[in-house]
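Hi there, hope your week has been kind to you so far. Do you reckon you could talk me through the fold, stretch by stretch? Thanks so much in advance, here it is.
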Amino acid sequence: MTARTPSRRGILFGGAMIGAGTLAAACTSNDEKDPAPAANISAAGGDNDKPGKKVTLGFSAPAADHGWIAAIAKNAQAQAKQYSDVTFKAVEPTNDINQQISAVESLISAKVDALVLLPNDGGQLNQVARKAMDAGIPVVNLDRVFPDKLSYRNWIGGDNYGMGVAAGNYVGKRLKEKGVAKPVIVEIQGIATLPLTQDRSKGFADALKAHGFTVTAKQDAKFTVESGNQVATNLLSAHKKIDALWNHDDDQGVGVLAAIKQAGRKEFFMVGGAGSANAMREIKSGGVLEATVTYSPTMAGSAIKVARLIAQGRGFSDLVEQEVPQSITLASETITKQNVDRYLPLGFES
């Protein structure tokens, strides 16, 4: 998560337009013992899913070195298998910018009908995406956006600001319910310099402000389990009493929760970010983690649906317009103990 600029972490397609309606989300542990994430696919049905012209869809994404990216690749492949008219051509995943550029160029040379591309870094892969578009290959830009709109036909991704708003609203309402007047609110970010992190923090701050609260302290944890553990340990040591904690990413949250349990702290409640299965099991158990807000890797399955329709010259059957929209933004849902059973089968493994 260093050279590449992640844009994601949090869940759920916020509209029935392409029927993805499923879930998961974010950065995680690199533990080889972690089970493979479940793929969430949308079952065939509706006019858009009727067989059409046979097309070949190219796919490129970073290496699956954490749960969210692993779920991205799995969802894309599983969705493609739902269609008899789709040939799925995935290149070797990599975290090396130059290798991903070369991989995308191979798909351009293969003359795929459409390309689904989650770049390691939108800025650095902008030129090769533009090359595909100039070659007449429509690009579905997944999550990490290219700066040049001429480099993609469609963008689909999550709402980072919305994640922060969802988390802030949950925290604000819970603190009001508890009657806490001057709460100590701690925020554990991903990578502080990233726009996605800044958007999440702004959404969180704006929502808290609407409830009359502000963040007491925040620190970034680099989207890893190890740094999540270290940062949480430091913050717990610095604040002997905390009322609420928001952790941006459920994968790094594995380390955060370990630090909390190690310290024996139970006086506050925690909200996660992404919607991993691990986080949902913690919520179900009734511990310090009360909720998580989503950012879904099911967007990859939706991207395959979108790319297929574009390559076949079709639009969404539920819309009046004849072509697929230029952009699709996922909504961030809030998962609590009240609805966790409905979401748990859809979570990805941290």
